[in-house]
Amino acid sequence: MRADAVTGGQTNNRNASPWLVALLTALVMTLFAANSLLCRFALAGEASSPLNPAVYTALRAISGAGMLWLMVARRGGNPLRAGSWGAALALFGYMACFSWAYVRLSAGAGALVIAVAVQAGMLVAGLRLGQRPGKAQSVGIGLAMAGLVYLLLPGLDAPPAGAASVIFCSGLCWAVYTICGRQGGDVTAATAGNFIRCVPLALVLLVWGMAVDGAGAPAAWPWAGVVCALAAGALASALGYVLWYAVLRWLSVPSAAVVQLSVPLITAMGGAWLMHEALGLRLLVSTLAILGGIFCATALPHLLRSR
Fold first, then answer.
1. d(C-alpha 247, C-alpha 75), whole Å
2. If pLDDT is split at 50, 70 and 90, which confidence band does 7 have?
3. Which of 91, 69, 93 is closest to 81 using CA atoms?
4. Quick one: DSSP state of residue 51?
């Protein structure tokens, strides 16, 4: 998620140990990457019996809502007073498209496509608000798009076009959700409110998956996939988002933008290590181009202005 989208471009430089900040930042980036790895494992990875995407999405949303509700309720807050239905719909769209796409995508390729989609969505939103990209941003956007085109060119190493399109839609939904979060306020309560609003949608999706999409009864669901879905919701999503908002107090906007470039790399390396996914030349070249482009579009302009 873009740092300026949740902080309004402001940085709270409270005193904190650099080691603590580095440790928390690394933990958050790992949790973000874990979303892709857990989803891929549950739906089409090492799991002996893949979990249905509808069930995975529903369990992720419900467990995330439960964890966030507990966090907010412990401090006496009411999460239903925060958030919005628009943001909740965008969040649910992100999670649903995310799950269906990862049935056929590798973890690393999916993370790369999402990274480009988020930047593209934020660019369109900026243009609608009259915010024109500068030279460095234009170069970065072009480089990232070129890397995505190269990744998706027909060939043995190219990810399926249909799945790539769905994961791109997931990234666009996340961009919309990020824009909805620009309203400020208590971000933890707002995130909880958005997740809780996803629960009715998740229950409808769960019933549909069991009745129409072949998910079967709960007793038939693979336990490994269920554990992955619950962990993705309660830990990688809910806890990850809350920790990220906390870390943002100590990070400048360029720093926050740069550290997020590590997520696709962590995902690709994790997929290769844990699920024996191939790190082909096409994926590596695309990774360098896309991450370099995102760096130029997000962090480089701030670094140039600070000189």
1. 20
2. very low
3. 69
4. P
| Residues near 191 by beta carbon (within 8 Å), at least 6 away in sequence | 68, 83, 238, 241, 242, 245
Tens-digit pLDDT profile for residues 46-60: 556 789 999 999 999
**Higher per-residue pLDDT: 154 or 277:** 277
Rounded distance between C-alpha atoms, residue 113 and residue 127, angstroms: 21
CB 154 within 8 A of CB 99: no
**C-alpha to C-alpha distance for 58 and 64, rounded to whole angstroms:** 10
C-beta separation of 3 from 190 below 8 A: no
Q: Give how far Cα 175 sits from Cα of 86, 96, 118, 169, Å.
A: 13, 15, 5, 10
Is the pLDDT reported for residue 212 higher than 60? yes
Residue 67 is predicted with a pLDDT of 95
